[in-house]
TrEMBL record:
PANTHER family: INNER MEMBRANE PROTEIN, INNER MEMBRANE PROTEIN-RELATED
Organism: Caldalkalibacillus uzonensis
Protein name listed in UniProt: Membrane protein YhdT
This protein's UniProt keywords: Membrane, Transmembrane, Transmembrane helix
Domain of life of the organism encoding this protein: Bacteria
Membrane-crossing segments per the record: 28-45, 65-86
């Protein structure tokens, strides 16, 4: 029969949240906001400009304007936003099981 740990054996029963969780949650929220904004951008241009009859389309670089703005320009804009978010808002977090809290 396995021994059950209890407070009499000197084990610390207090839960201490890892500070990396707070950083991870903040970065996850930033990622979700960027993903939702990217979808809204794509949806607005694709269905906003693309809902016209084909005869009324305008073209940019040989592509329909709705496709250019939603897919080509959207990719460039959101790639830059992701780069800037990672550069300025994300932190390097050690993934090892160091209890010393390695956040800098």
């Amino acid at each position: 029969m396995a021994d059950k740990p209890n407070s009499d054996q000197g084990l610390d029963t207090k839960f201490q949240e890892d500070p990396r969780f707070k950083v991870s949650h903040r970065e996850a929220i930033i990622g979700i906001v960027i993903a939702v904004a990217n979808f809204m951008w794509w949806f607005a241009f694709a269905y906003g400009l693309g809902s016209k009859p084909v005869e009324e389309y305008t073209y940019i670089l040989g592509l329909p304007a709705w496709f250019f703005f939603s897919c080509v320009l959207g990719f460039v804009v959101f790639s830059c936003i992701v780069f800037l978010a990672v550069k300025f808002f994300y932190k390097e977090v050690p993934l090892d099981d160091d209890q010393g809290g390695g956040l800098k």
